[in-house]
Amino acid sequence: MKMVQLGINKYRFFLLLFVVIISFGISFFLLREEEIISVDLVGSEQQYLPLNSNYIDPGFKIMINDRVVDEKEYNYTVDNDINVKVLGDYELVYHINYNDEEFVLKRNISVVDTTKPVINVSKNPVEIYYCDKESNINLEYTAVDDYDGVITDKVEEIRENDRIILSVSDSSGNLTEVAVEITYTDEVPPIIELVGNEVVYLKKGAEYVEQGAYASDGCGKSIDEDIKISHNVDVNVPGEYEVIYEVSSSTGKTAIKKRTVVVYEYNGASTNPQQDDKVVYLTFDDGPGVYTEEILDILAKYNVKATFFVTNQFPKYIHLLSREAEEGHTVAVHTLTHKWSIYQSVETYMKDFNDMNDIVQKYTGKRTRLFRFPGGSSNTVSKKYASGVVSAISDRMTKDGYIYFDWNVDSEDAAGANKEQIYNNVISGMKSKKNAVVLMHDIKKHTAEALEDIINYGLANGYTFKALDEMSPTVHHPINN
Ligand SMILES: [Zn+2]
């Protein structure tokens, strides 16, 4: 029985031993520290590298559980073909040997351009002439990109009000914008030019006729339509009045111009009652001709009397002798033909003179005793025809009761003076003479143009205009032949 019992106990013993051993094994297995190896990149798998910059590889690390494995414990190589000068994607491949095991890691590096292009403008702000506001502005600039190089031709210009926006993108889409401010040169005010004279003389009671004005803005564009004209002229009350012309350009620059209107009392003649006044004798030679009517109109407008030393050079106009006489001017003989050959002899001169005086009589109803030598009494051209002839003619004519007039103010209109020169010659001559006998020609355009200003000056400055008559002071040159 004991043996049987023992047999049973042996079986149990081994069973128990087996259980214990298994339990130990399981416990050991469960309780031992577990080793976990990880090999990972430091930093992200995709990295961006600005062009031309150095790549600093953050590397990788190997860990066993929480422990970083020391570099001495493994070997590695890196395949690296990054070209930091060329945009693109590059792969870094890490080959790592650790514990006889090979690990491979990969990382993508994108070399990118993040630098904006640079626009260099030669002038900012840029100043332009204000009249060129509407026209294109040529800016000088360059655009350079660190990767694309010179990209000036890719710059776009957008004109805003007072600036130009320059913009350019490089091939990577980096955008640069530069605003160029526009400044304008100072604007010139408009200019007003009066039609007619700045001083207008008006007989009391006569109608004031507005002649108007021209205006241009500072850029030369006509703005005639915008002129505002105002005046307080009372033609029934003698005095000085102002006509005001005002105009504004589109940008608000204004100009003002004034015209003076002198309303004067008409006392029957152009003479000034003051005896001491300076007298001006306007004389017109060589007509009647193409400008005679215009000159007569101006004289009539101011009621100024003058003297015409007439010819028959232009028969088409000869009828104007009548008008000259009717309007109170003196019609005197110059010459029928105005040819130097009349100086051949006293007789040839007298024939020419008398023929002209016949015409004067025909048109004016009376002969004249007044005359002017062609070329003046001092002319020397006559020497070519006859020696001493002017002297002989002078003696003969004086004996016959004729009176000749030279001049002491030469407008130089026959010598080609322009309007301003004629005006200046006459005005300065008038100023220096108590009795000015002014040589002009009613066949000269610039004479007609200058006349109104001359009269205006004279009337405004106390001169009296008179026609020559037999009582007038004679002005004689020395006779040279
Ligand atoms: Zn002449």
Can you describe what's shown?
The protein is of the alpha/beta class. The protein has 4 domains: 37-112, Immunoglobulins (Immunoglobulin-like), CATH 2.60.40.10; 118-184, Immunoglobulin-like, CATH 2.60.40; 191-264, Immunoglobulin-like; 279-465, TIM Barrel (Alpha-Beta Barrel). The chain is 22% helix and 32% strand. The protein has 7 helices and 28 strands. The protein has helices at residues 2-31, 292-302, 320-326, 346-364, 389-399, 419-431, 445-460; strands spanning 37-41, 46-50, 60-64, 67-68, 74-80, 88-98, 101-112, 118-121, 126-128, 141-145, 149-150, 156-159, 163-169, 175-184, 191-194, 199-203, 213-216, 228-231, 239-248, 254-264, 279-285, 307-311, 330-335, 370-371, 403-404, 409-410, 435-441, 464-465. Strands 21, 22, 23, 26, 27 and 28 form a 6-stranded parallel beta sheet that branches. Strands 2-7-6-5 form a 4-stranded mixed beta sheet, with no helix packed on it. The chain has a 4-stranded mixed beta sheet with strand order 9-14-13-12, with no helix packed on it. A hairpin with a 5-residue loop joins strand 13 (163-169) and strand 14 (175-184). The longest helix is centred in the first third of the chain and has 30 residues, at 2-31. The radius of gyration is 56 Å and the shape is rod-shaped. The model is unreliable at 266-275 (pLDDT under 50). It binds zinc ion.
